[in-house]
Structure formats: structure tokens, C-alpha cells
Task: inverse folding
């Protein structure tokens, strides 16, 4: 079959660990070839041993998990073929190596035990009926597990680098505060200076207005017709003299 098994593409927690990995469950792959009594197996082999793997002729010939380090391959996750059909409501992930309680189980009980080394591994799905294999997928690309580090090999430098980062961040924060203070001071001085200039302009205008009282006011060329005479008509009819009328 043209299907290639692969690690699930979604970002899952623990998708690949030091002893397990999560495969995407194939769907609609075996529908044309499977009967109700058939089962789907997962063959797991070290990447350099997948080329020499031989499909078992019957369930009795399935290579067990406990011989992985000697035979370089085993088969696990025996599942009814109906669980891989298009309409099956099954989980989308198959975790390989997730059963820690089956280390000592016999050959007739396929074990999905933890993988003993980082690998890399290759896997394929095998459809088996009562008379042996009926269909199989292609082998996956090599799958490399994570490697656990010994505490003695852990470099303590990251903690020192972390302290250096804290010191640098503190210095930058202090410089930022000083710069902000300087900017605010400059803006305050500019605003205060503009206010002072406005006050000086008002005071100068006041003083200039105040000094104008030393300039004698211009006298009118002639008085109004009424001029305050009593009766008013007398001042208009009398041709002389106008001076006493100005002094009243």
C-alpha cells in the first residue's frame, strides 16, 4: 500500500520522548483488503534492520518485544482492522512504547513496551488474516528518540549566563530611567521658559502702556456744539467772546 507511517504532525505534549513516540493512526487504508476477522499489526525495527525484516506467516511467528535487542525488530499493537476504517471513531494517535507493564509478557501476548534506545527506528503497518499477511504499508522514515542527559554532563553555565542577563537588564533599566528623567527635565525647562517669555511680554506691554501718561494728550481743535453753555442757544447766537464759555 502507498501509505507511509509518520509521527503525528500536530504539536502534542510528549510526541517524541526518550522511550516513546506518537504515530498518526492510519484511516481508510485497509478498507479494500480487510475482512471482519483480520487484524492490523505494527512492525517496529531498528532503521538499519528494516531491510532484512520478514513478515511472519502466522500469528504464532510474530516476533516478540523481548527479542528486540537480538532480532532487531518486533511486532505490537494488534488491533482489529475495523478500528482503522473510515467510519471508526478512534483516537488519532498511536503511542509506540507506552506500556511499561508488559516487559515480562510472553510471545503470545504482544507487548508495546518502552523502546530501549534512541534508535533510530522505522515502522510499518501489516494487515494479517487467518492465512497470513494480506497487505502492508511502506516503511516510515527513520524516527530518532530523545536522549536523556546525565546530571554530571549538564553545563552550569546557563545559570551564570542567566545572572549576567539579569545584571545587564538592570543596567539597561537604570539607563532608561536616567534618560527618561533627562527628557522630562528638558521638556519642563522648555515649557517653563515659554511661560516666562509670555510673562515678560505682558509686563513689558504694561510698562509701555504705563509710560504713555508722560506724553501730553492732543487737544481737540474745536469743542462740541453744546459745550455746556446755558442756555445752549446763547453760545451759538453770540459771536463773542468764546473764552468764558470754555472755562465754565
Result:
Amino acid at each position: 500500500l502507498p501509505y507511509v507511517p509518520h509521527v503525528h504532525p500536530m504539536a502534542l505534549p510528549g510526541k517524541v520522548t526518550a522511550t516513546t513516540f506518537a504515530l498518526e493512526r492510519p484511516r481508510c487504508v485497509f478498507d479494500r483488503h480487510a475482512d471482519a476477522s483480520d487484524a492490523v499489526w505494527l512492525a517496529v525495527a531498528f532503521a538499519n534492520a528494516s531491510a532484512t525484516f520478514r513478515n511472519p506467516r502466522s500469528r504464532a511467528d510474530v516476533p516478540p518485544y523481548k527479542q528486540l535487542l537480538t532480532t532487531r525488530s518486533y511486532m505490537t499493537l494488534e488491533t482489529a482492522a475495523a478500528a482503522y476504517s473510515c467510519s471508526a471513531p478512534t483516537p488519532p494517535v498511536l503511542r509506540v512504547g507506552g506500556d511499561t507493564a508488559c516487559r515480562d509478557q510472553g510471545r503470545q501476548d504482544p507487548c508495546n513496551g518502552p523502546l530501549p534506545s534512541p534508535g533510530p527506528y522505522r515502522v510499518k503497518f501489516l494487515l494479517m488474516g487467518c492465512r497470513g499477511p494480506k497487505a502492508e504499508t511502506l516503511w516510515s522514515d527513520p524516527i530518532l528518540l530523545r536522549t536523556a542527559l546525565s546530571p554530571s554532563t549538564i553545563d552550569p553555565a546557563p545559570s551564570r549566563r542567566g545572572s549576567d542577563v539579569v545584571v545587564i537588564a538592570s543596567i539597561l533599566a537604570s539607563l532608561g530611567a536616567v534618560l527618561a528623567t533627562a527628557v522630562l527635565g528638558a521638556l519642563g525647562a522648555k515649557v517653563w521658559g515659554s511661560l516666562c517669555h509670555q510673562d515678560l511680554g505682558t509686563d513689558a506691554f504694561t510698562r509701555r502702556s504705563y509710560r504713555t501718561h508722560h506724553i501730553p494728550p492732543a487737544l481737540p481743535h474745536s469743542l462740541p456744539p453744546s459745550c455746556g453753555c446755558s442756555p445752549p442757544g446763547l453760545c451759538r447766537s453770540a459771536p463773542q467772546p468764546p473764552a468764558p464759555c470754555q472755562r465754565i
Summary: The first strand starts at residue 21 and ends at 24. The radius of gyration is 51 Å.
